[in-house]
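Working notes for the structural subgroup meeting. M.R. asked for a predicted model of this chain before we commit to crystallization trials. I am recording the input and output together here so anyone reviewing the notebook later can reproduce the run.

Input as submitted:
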Amino acid sequence: MTITYDASKLEYVKGEAGSIVINPSINFAINKEKDGIIRILFLDDTLLNNI
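Returned structure, recorded in token form:
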């Protein structure tokens, strides 16, 4: 997913997975590409044993 925002009105501070995401070090990534663009990747690998 890509989120675009007005960087003159909002500041990206950080992004982290909530408690519902199992094994976020593998299933979740977030990157501020540049001011105004954030890219998020979520891989729902819950059908496998990720615990």
